[in-house]
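Justification of computing resources. Each target in the renewal requires a structure prediction run like the one illustrated here; the chain below, 164 residues long, is used simply to show the kind of job we budget for.
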Amino acid sequence: MNVDTLLELYTAGKRDFSCFDLRRVDLSEIDLSGAILSRAELAGANLNGANLKGVKLSEANLTGATLWRTDLSNATLYKAILSRAILIKANLSSVDLRDTLLNRADLRLTNLTGANLSGANLTGTDLRYAQLKLVELTGVDLSQAFIVGASIQDSLLYDYDQNN
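Resulting structure tokens:
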């Protein structure tokens, strides 16, 4: 599907674009708030500066996508693949990132306030100066991650048994 067709359908009120193939498309600065892109193929897509508030991207493939300054607040990315994605200065506040693959992703200066990252794979992810306030990090793989300057205030890093 090309961008013009997608925008025509969105403008006409269609919101469900599940399983659509949007690899390497340029969707920069586009407003797709509230769209459903579950299981969509968005590998290598340019989503810089896009408005994706509340978008459902569960199980979507965003490998190598660029989402610089993208607003994904309140979005659902459950089990999405964001390996090597660039999310510098993105707004991921209150986002569902449970069980998401974010290995080697660039999340520098990203706002993750209130996000749920439980079970996510952040191996080698760059989280320098990211805002991780009130983030659920239970079961997260942070091996080889860069977290210098990141704020993890009031975040849950792991489950523990209070009786031991």
